[in-house]
Design a protein that fits this description.
Number of domains: 1
Radius of gyration: 15 Å
Number of helices: 3
Number of strands: 6
Largest sheet: 6 strands, antiparallel
Shape: globular
Strand content: 25-35%
CATH topology: Peptide Deformylase
Distance between the termini: 35 Å
Length: about 170
């Protein structure tokens, strides 16, 4: 039995890959702004994928500016139809997610990646990044592929209750 089913999350993201955005329209730009606004309104959120707000399209927003674990920082980044081109090295680290608010988990992710996507203006972007920004990008790409971090736990004992800081 999967961790998702045990935790009552069987319907979370429904395990379905998001659909390509294709031609960028005014609706795609509105989606980008909605993703940005939702991310900014959510404490400690550094990224958000369209499926997390009920839109089954391949789009995400990310901004790790000021995060203590970030080395490379591209600032506010919105990508449509992102595609992972390269992934190197792997490190296990703790992740949390707005879709699973009460839990965190230890997940192995590449520490250096290259991806391609289109920005809000429709221009193709190739992004090279590392460390925490790479982890955050891969986390959002998982959402676009119908996965959450629970699907990638590093093994037994890798699931944790989220700490609450006061």
């Amino acid at each position: 039995m999967s961790v998702r089913r045990v935790l009552g999350l069987a319907e979370l993201d429904r395990g379905r890959p998001a659909l390509p955005v294709g031609e960028l329209s005014s609706d795609a730009r509105l989606l980008a702004q909605d993703l940005i606004d939702t991310m900014r309104a959510s404490p400690a959120c550094v990224g958000l994928a369209a499926p997390q707000i009920g839109v089954p399209l391949r789009a995400f927003v990310l901004d790790v500016s000021g995060h203590r674990k970030a080395r490379t920082v591209h600032g506010e980044l919105v990508l449509f139809d992102p595609e992972l081109l390269e992934a190197q090295e792997t490190e296990v680290a703790r992740e949390g997610c707005m879709s699973v608010p009460d839990l965190t988990g230890d997940v192995a992710r590449a520490t250096r990646i290259v991806l391609r996507g289109r920005d809000v203006a429709g221009a193709e972007k190739v992004i090279r990044t590392d460390a925490f920004e790479a982890r955050a990008v891969l986390h959002e790409l998982d959402h676009l592929d119908g996965l959450v971090f629970l699907d990638r736990l590093a093994g037994p004992g890798a699931l944790h209750a989220r700490r609450v800081y006061r």
